[in-house]
Design brief:
Elements lengths: L1 H44 L6 H26 L1
Length: 78
């Protein structure tokens, strides 16, 4: 009988520990989300914020510009 209640106590302690860890992770995630929002707001106010869906387009344009420049250099070389 003692082993049965001891096993339940261990399970309960493990459950409490998991809940504690989960609570800590959620708190950290909330803090991170708040910090990200602060940085986004700072960038927006300084006119440097680029939304995530626009970032790829910007990089694509930069890559195209580099490729175009390389083509011009190669054409002048030959």
């Amino acid at each position: 009988m003692a082993e049965g209640s001891g096993g339940k106590l261990v399970e309960t302690n493990q459950g409490v520990e998991r809940e504690f860890k989960l609570t800590a992770l959620v708190t950290q995630l909330n803090n991170l989300a708040s910090k990200i929002s602060e940085v986004e707001n700072q960038c927006k106010s300084q006119g440097r914020y680029i939304p995530p869906h626009e970032r790829k387009k910007s990089r694509d344009r930069e890559n195209n510009c580099v490729e175009d420049t390389q083509q011009i250099i190669l054409q002048k070389d030959h």
